[in-house]
Amino acid sequence: MTTTPQPNSQAREHCLQFLYQCDIHKIFYFSTPHFQRFVEENGLSFAVTEKVEVLATGVLSRQKTIDDLLRQHSTKWSLERMAAMDRMVLRLATYELLATKTPVKVVLNEAIELAKRYGTEHSSSFVNGVLDSIADKLKKHGNSTAEPSST
Question: Going by C-beta distance under 8 Å and a sequence separation of 6 or more, which residues neighbour residue 55?
Answer without folding.
Answer: 11, 12, 15, 92, 95, 96
